[in-house]
């Protein structure tokens, strides 16, 4: 009984599954039926009737027949085939032959796609044909109007087009047979071929429009502006050469001769309507001409500079040589009293050697100016270099002269600073002797002796003949550092002594009751009398701080107040 139930359940499950699959296939067949009907009832013939408004000849007639045949095949063959296949698919589904039904459904889908492609192709070609006719009708009128306008422009401004006139007229004459061919193709219903002619004429019209715009400008440059500039440059060159300007280095004559030959070639290129390279070359020529104008102007400016400064340079060199010799003599005299570093002592000699070289350069320059066989621009550069070098030598010579003058001032300043340092050392020694302390440590005595030795070294260096100020400054700097360090350490020592005394006095009140404090203070007093002030300060500080934290800061504040009052 159990087996029978299982079998029944399985059969019911299979039946339900089969019914679900059949329902799915029925829905798919229904969808395909609707799409087939859409293809079948699409009003393609109504669309094709739009063609009848055109000339039903030639290409138009061929295309119309082709479209009609294509759609007849769709209706009479493909749609009939799809009807049969839909019937077979329904039959297979009813018999639960789903695999065969699926295969037929795929074939029907392919037929529908094929029919849809044919429909889209027909509509697209139809719209293109009708659109071409409309565009052709509008654009041909525009082209004819442009052709008439271009003809009027050429006739009204024949002179502006010069040698290009004949070829321009020929290019425009080519429009007439094209218009006639267009009319013939249109009359024959060949609208797409006529469209190709329109596109060709549009491109040609744009090209001619550019020619009509560019040719007058280019011819003006070639025939008028550039020849005028060439003549101006020739006249300018002639006038400047008559005024003794040297211009051969510019090679202007050769350039102008070649340019005149090139203008003939460019003019012929314009006549042949080959403007591709003419325009850029005209721009280059104008830049080259502007550059030659600048070069001629540069020569004029250079001549003015040379005329203004050349002769004056001789006096300048003479004056600088005289001044340098004076500085040289002064340096020789000063060296009896002061020792100069070898490098600085050589400055006047080096300046004189450099001036000798400049003198020769100037003499050669003056000869070139008199000969008038050199470009003034090169003469100006040479003169400018001599001027710059002269200014450098003058600056170096003046700097050296000021250094000589400052030697006496530096010596006096050094003696004054030495006196100041002596007084500072004396004050330091007096301050130590006046201080209430058992004595001065050996280390401090050694520092004081070192300071005395440094002062002695400076005094000795100031008594040398010739006087070496570099050595004086070096010794003086060492002395200053040594004395200032001694003074600072002396002040620190005196402050420490006062702190020790105050701390011991402060700690005395606890000696009777605190043996540890008493012991530490004894150690501090012993170190104090042995001039070991740092050790004494540490012992006293430990003793006071151990019984009363923070007391040291108060004692330090009191000592600072006492020092300020002194």
UniProtKB/TrEMBL annotation:
<comment type="function">
    <text>Negative regulator of FtsZ ring formation; modulates the frequency and position of FtsZ ring formation. Inhibits FtsZ ring formation at polar sites. Interacts either with FtsZ or with one of its binding partners to promote depolymerization.</text>
</comment>
<dbReference type="GO" id="GO:0000917">
    <property type="term" value="P:division septum assembly"/>
</dbReference>
<feature type="topological domain" description="Cytoplasmic">
    <location>
        <begin position="22"/>
        <end position="566"/>
    </location>
</feature>
<comment type="similarity">
    <text>Belongs to the EzrA family.</text>
</comment>
<keyword id="KW-0717">Septation</keyword>
<dbReference type="InterPro" id="IPR010379">
    <property type="entry name" value="EzrA"/>
</dbReference>
<dbReference type="GO" id="GO:0005886">
    <property type="term" value="C:plasma membrane"/>
</dbReference>
<protein>
    <recommendedName>
        <fullName>Septation ring formation regulator EzrA</fullName>
    </recommendedName>
</protein>
<keyword id="KW-0131">Cell cycle</keyword>
<keyword id="KW-0132">Cell division</keyword>
<feature type="topological domain" description="Extracellular">
    <location>
        <begin position="1"/>
        <end position="2"/>
    </location>
</feature>
<dbReference type="GO" id="GO:0005940">
    <property type="term" value="C:septin ring"/>
</dbReference>
<feature type="coiled-coil region">
    <location>
        <begin position="249"/>
        <end position="276"/>
    </location>
</feature>
<keyword id="KW-0812">Transmembrane</keyword>
<keyword id="KW-0472">Membrane</keyword>
<feature type="coiled-coil region">
    <location>
        <begin position="352"/>
        <end position="431"/>
    </location>
</feature>
<keyword id="KW-1003">Cell membrane</keyword>
<dbReference type="Pfam" id="PF06160">
    <property type="entry name" value="EzrA"/>
</dbReference>
<keyword id="KW-1133">Transmembrane helix</keyword>
<dbReference type="GO" id="GO:0000921">
    <property type="term" value="P:septin ring assembly"/>
</dbReference>
<keyword id="KW-0175">Coiled coil</keyword>
């Amino acid at each position: 009984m159990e087996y029978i139930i299982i079998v029944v359940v399985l059969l019911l499950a299979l039946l339900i599954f089969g019914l679900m699959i059949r329902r799915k296939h029925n829905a798919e067949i229904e969808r395909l039926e609707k799409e087939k009907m859409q293809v079948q009832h699409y009003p393609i013939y109504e669309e094709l009737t739009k063609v009848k408004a055109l000339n039903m000849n030639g290409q138009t007639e061929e295309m119309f027949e082709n479209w009609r045949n294509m759609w007849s095949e769709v209706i009479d063959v493909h749609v009939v085939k799809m009807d049969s296949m839909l019937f077979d698919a329904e039959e297979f589904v009813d018999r639960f032959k789903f695999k065969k039904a699926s295969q037929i459904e795929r074939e029907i889908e392919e037929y529908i796609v094929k029919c849809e492609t044919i429909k889209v192709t027909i509509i697209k070609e139809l719209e293109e044909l009708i659109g071409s006719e409309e565009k052709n009708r509008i654009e041909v009128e525009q082209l004819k109007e442009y052709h008439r306008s271009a003809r009027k422009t050429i006739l009204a401004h024949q002179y502006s087009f010069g040698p290009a006139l004949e070829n321009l007229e020929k290019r425009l004459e080519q429009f007439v047979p094209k218009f006639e061919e267009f009319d013939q193709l249109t009359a024959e219903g060949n609208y797409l071929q006529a469209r190709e002619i329109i596109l060709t004429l549009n491109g040609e019209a744009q090209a001619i429009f550019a020619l009509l715009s560019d040719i007058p400008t280019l011819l003006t440059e070639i025939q008028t502006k550039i020849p005028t500039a060439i003549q101006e440059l020739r006249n300018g060159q002639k006038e400047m050469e008559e005024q003794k300007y040297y211009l051969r280095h510019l090679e202007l004559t050769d350039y102008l001769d070649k340019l005149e030959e090139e203008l003939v070639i460019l003019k012929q290129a314009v006549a042949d309507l080959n403007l591709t390279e003419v325009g850029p070359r005209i721009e280059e020529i104008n830049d080259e001409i502007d550059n030659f104008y600048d070069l001629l102007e540069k020569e004029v400016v250079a001549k003015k500079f040379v005329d203004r400064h050349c002769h004056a340079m001789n006096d300048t060199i003479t004056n600088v040589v005289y001044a340098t010799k004076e500085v040289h003599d002064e340096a020789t005299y000063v060296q009896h009293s002061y020792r100069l570093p070898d490098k600085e002592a050589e400055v006047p000699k080096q300046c004189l050697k450099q001036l000798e070289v400049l003198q020769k350069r100037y003499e050669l320059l003056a000869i070139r100016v008199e000969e008038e066989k050199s470009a003034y621009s090169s003469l100006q550069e040479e003169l400018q270099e001599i001027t710059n070098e002269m200014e450098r030598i003058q600056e170096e010579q003046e700097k050296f002269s000021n250094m000589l003058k400052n030697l006496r001032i530096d010596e006096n300043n050094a003696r004054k600073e030495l006196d100041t340092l002596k007084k500072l050392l004396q004050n330091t020694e007096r301050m130590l002797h006046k201080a209430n302390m058992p004595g001065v440590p050996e280390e401090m005595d050694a520092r004081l002796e070192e300071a005395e030795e440094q002062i002695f070294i400076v005094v000795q260096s100031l008594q040398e003949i010739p006087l070496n100020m570099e050595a004086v400054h070096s010794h003086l700097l060492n002395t200053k550092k040594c004395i200032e360090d001694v003074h600072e350490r002396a002040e620190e020592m005196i402050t420490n002594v006062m702190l020790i005394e105050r701390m011991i006095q402060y700690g005395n009140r606890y000696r009777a009751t605190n043996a540890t404090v008493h012991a530490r203070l004894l150690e501090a007093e012993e170190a104090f009398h042995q001039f070991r002030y740092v050790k004494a300060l540490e012992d006293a500080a430990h003793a006071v701080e151990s019984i009363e934290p923070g007391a040291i800061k108060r004692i330090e504040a009191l000592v600072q107040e006492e020092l300020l009052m002194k």
